[in-house]
Design a protein that fits this description.
Elements lengths: L1 E6 L14 E5 L7 H20 L4 E7 L11 E7 L4 H4 L4 H18 L5 E5 L2 H23 L3 E2 L5 H11 L5 E6 L6 E6 L3
Helix pairs in contact: 1-3, 4-5
Length: 194
Amino acid sequence: MEVTVVKEGRHGILGLGAEEARVRVRSLVRVPGEESDIAEAAKEVLETLLARMGVVASVVSQTKPPVEGGEGASSVITLDVTDDDLGILIGRRGQTLSSLQYIVRLIVAHQAKAWVPIVIDVEGYKQRRYGVLQALARRMAEQVKVKGRPFALEPMPAYERRIIHITLADDPDVITESIGEGEARKVVIMSKEP
């Protein structure tokens, strides 16, 4: 197990003002063959959901090594959905795809009794979007450098904001910051120099 102390507890005086400690516990033990079983279960869940939605498509599952390669990090299960005209599964700005991924993650986590990183992609949409966001980040960073004024991007989901932050993390001239609340949260690109 990996134990992380999120918040230290306090004794208080005579029990008054006492606070409980908060810890996060994560299992580092992986049972051989478990990931392939979970990947198969995730594929079956997605195929069932698609069938109930009346969508005819093929689903291919892959288990990829952890992105950051840290000790105890889980492999990522990727489900690629392919067929003709699956735009309905992507939805406006990928909202339908994000919701479908969330539902599959919940169902599989409930069945496996553990959270499992699952990524669903439809006809390479997420990979194309990743490239578009990287290009956008670089283009807007250049505008910030030239004009010297901050630039706020449109509101976007957390995983898309993260792509912008990572893309510009090594840029010596600009910094990024997320501002706003909920669905209105967006990235602002600013010059490092005042």
